Structures are given as C-alpha cells and as structure tokens.
Prior knowledge:
With 186 residues, the protein is of the alpha+beta class. It has helices spanning 31-41, 124-135, 167-182, and strands at residues 11-13, 23-27, 45-58, 62-76, 83-97, 115-117, 121-123. The longest helix is centred in the C-terminal third of the chain and has 16 residues, at 167-182.
Amino acid sequence: MTKSAPLPILSFSADGLSGRKPTRFKFLPTAAERAAMAAQMGLIALNDLKCHGEITPFGHHDFHLTAEFNAKIIQPCSITLAPVPATVSDSIDRRFIRDFKEPEEEEAEMMDETAEPMPKLIDIVAIVMESLTLAMPLYPRAPNAELGEAVFAAPSVAPLMDADLKPFASLAALAIKMKTDENPNG
C-alpha cells in the first residue's frame, strides 16, 4: 500500500500577525501536495493550483483575508465516472473577528456572511480547499453522457416511466386530438 503525501501546510498564528501591515502569501503546492489535496476532495487530479492573497488588519484585533485562486482539476463524471477536466477561478473573502458573537435568535439575519470567529491558526490550505470545493462544478458531465431512465418494478408489475409522471402531457395530447376531431380540415 502506497502512502500518499501529507497535505501541505500554510498557516498563520492570529497572535503573530502584524496589527499594522498586511501579511501577503502565495500558495503553490507541489505535485505530491496537489495529489494529496485531490484525494481529500474526491478529485481524479488537481493538476495546477495557484493562490495569492493577504491578511490585512482592521480594527484593533481583527483581520481580513482576501485571496484569488486558479486551479485545473479533473473530476469524475457524475453519470459515467469518466474524467471531466475543468478550470476553476474564484476569490476568497473572510473576516476573522476576535469578539465574534453568534446570532441568538434562530432566524437572526447575519449582517456579514464573510465574518467568522477568530481562530488561533488561520489555515490557508483548509480555506483554499473549502473555497475550491464550493467553486467546482456540482455535477460534472463527460461529453455525450446521458442519465437515461432507470426502470424499477416488482415482477409482473408494469414499471412507472417518466412519461407516467407527467399527467398534463396526456391532457395536451387529448386537447389536440379533440381539436382535430372537431375540425377535420385542420
């Protein structure tokens, strides 16, 4: 059994960040690190990943992370499992608040969806993997991949087909038939 490479590490201690100037970073994982990330995210391959950004102080104790990433991925087709290549580009925008308070009411409206509690360690790799996963095509399809129609029924029972689930389609056909019966000349 081959042991895969560990996930890459790129993190910043919240207590160690400058309170006056931005902390800039570049994340360019090696081929082995990308393979470990691909395995973790359920990808066939993560052929390329480039991310750059900065963590900027705001207020007295809070930080704002902004970044851009570009990736070339290969996902399994959601129908055939055939490889489906894609290029994904997106931005990351997170605010880490030291005195973050969760809304108390169940239906409380979140004022800023980029705000979250300040972690002890700002894990760039985890943030990039989460953002990449959210930006990937949800149901990738290989060319010419068709879902088809699944037919299940107990023995000696007529299966329920897609057409049976469209009751108004038969009404439309009936309306057309009635019109042609009333007016046989068209």
